[in-house]
Design goal:
mainly alpha; 9 helices; 4% strand
Length: 156
C-alpha cells in the first residue's frame, strides 16, 4: 500500500504527465530531485498508512478482521486512505503553494495578476518544475486571458 500511495501522489502532483510520473517512480533519486520535499511527503504517506493500520487493528470493520491480521488492505481501506490524504494534503502543501504564488507574483511585471504565457513557460528553463501545464489544460481551467492582442496570451 505505501508504494501504491506514492504512485498515486506522484501521478496526482504531475497531473497529466504520465511519462514523467513513470520516470520519477522508477528512479528515487530523480523523484527526490524533481518533487520538492519528497522525503517529507513520503513520510506523511507512511504515517497515514501507519495510522490506518492502527485504526484497523483497534476497530476492524465487520468481515475485514482477517485482512488486518494478514497485513492486507481492502479496496475500501485504500479508498479511505487516498481520501484522507487528499483532504489533508492542502494544509501540508501550503508552504509550497506560497512559493508558487511568489514565483507567479515575481513574473507579473505589470501588477495585473497576469503572467505572459512565454514567461510562464520560460520559468521551466530556469529550473521551475511547476509551470508545465499545456495551454489546452490552462484554458480548460479558465486561467488563460487571450483578450489582449498586444500582450498576447496570459495566465491569470
Amino acid at each position: 500500500v505505501p508504494r501504491l500511495l506514492e504512485a498515486f501522489t506522484v501521478h496526482w502532483l504531475l497531473d497529466a504527465d504520465e511519462d514523467g510520473a513513470r520516470a520519477l517512480l522508477a528512479n528515487v533519486t530523480l523523484l527526490e530531485e524533481n518533487i520538492p520535499h519528497w522525503r517529507h511527503i513520503a513520510s506523511m504517506l507512511a504515517g497515514s498508512v501507519q495510522a490506518a493500520e492502527a485504526n484497523r487493528q483497534r476497530a476492524p470493520r465487520a468481515g475485514d478482521g482477517h485482512l488486518a491480521l494478514e497485513g492486507r488492505y481492502s479496496f475500501e481501506d485504500v479508498l479511505e486512505l487516498v481520501g484522507g490524504i487528499g483532504k489533508s494534503f492542502a494544509s501540508y502543501w501550503e508552504t509550497e503553494c506560497q512559493v508558487i504564488k511568489a514565483s507567479l507574483t515575481d513574473m507579473d511585471s505589470t501588477s495585473t495578476g497576469r503572467v505572459r504565457i512565454s514567461d510562464f513557460y520560460g520559468a521551466n528553463l530556469g529550473g521551475e518544475w511547476r509551470f508545465g501545464e499545456s495551454e489546452g489544460y490552462l484554458r480548460m481551467l479558465g486561467v488563460l486571458d487571450e483578450s489582449s492582442p498586444w500582450r498576447g496570451t496570459q495566465v491569470i
